[in-house]
Amino acid sequence: MFHFKEVKYKNILNIEYLVIPGKKVTSIIGESGSGKTTLLRHLNKLISYDEGEILYKNHSLREIDSMELRRKVIMLPQTPAIFNGTIKDNLLIGLKFSDKSMVEDVELLRVLQLVHLNKTLTEDAEKLSGGEKQRLGLGRVLLMNPEVSLLDEPSSALDEETENLIIEKIVQFSRKQQKTLVMVTHSKKIAEAYSDFIVEIKEGKVVHQRGK
Ligand SMILES: Nc1ncnc2c1ncn2[C@@H]1O[C@H](COP(=O)(O)OP(=O)(O)OP(=O)(O)O)[C@@H](O)[C@H]1O
């Protein structure tokens, strides 16, 4: 789905060749500062490479309109933006952005359950803890159900048990819907357990890419 050829970005990324497969779960692993987030940001056109080429479905990212791309490829940053308002407002805002039709409360509650957020829809989102805000952000992306989800350390603020539960559900959901999931994770264990494809980065270079 994404092809990298001789891609250079500042002195941060230098990727000779990388393929991220469609309709699969890919984990990006590597030490802190190795360039994982920078790679993910490229896939969402939040930054642009200096040299080489990144193709999305065989089209250069340079030629794809950023807003158009971001309707299909949604990135959840490590610390998702939470807006003034209720949990419901914060879930629905993604749908408004992507021009998708609105959904019933019962569907919103199902998503909250999926991300283990045991709250009511009318609660003030600002009052949630860091980990709860992260899960709300995940819920927002799940509801949008994009073609490609880019998750940057989606479970960094969670304890190990909750982390496993949530990643398992997200992966199941993505597989069932035949969507593409790319997640950055600090945990080799999570990468091994849940992904079809693992990319390891070291100092901006891909040192391993392998299917399982
Ligand atoms: N906007 C920027 N300008 C200059 N350098 C940057 C910028 N963003 C990131 N970097 C640098 O690029 C390198 C890679 O950063 P990146 O955030 O991609 O790493 P990471 O692997 O995601 O790290 P972590 O696991 O700690 O989140 C780091 O050395 C970082 O300091």
TrEMBL record:
Superkingdom in the source lineage: Bacteria
InterPro entries according to UniProt: AAA+_ATPase (IPR003593), ABC_transporter-like_ATP-bd (IPR003439), ABC_transporter-like_CS (IPR017871), P-loop_NTPase (IPR027417)
Assigned keywords, A-Z: ATP-binding, Nucleotide-binding, Transport
Limits of the ABC transporter domain: 2-211
Xref: Pfam families: ABC_tran (PF00005)
One annotated GO molecular function: ATP binding
Record-annotated membrane-spanning stretches: none
Name of the protein: Putative ABC transport system ATP-binding protein
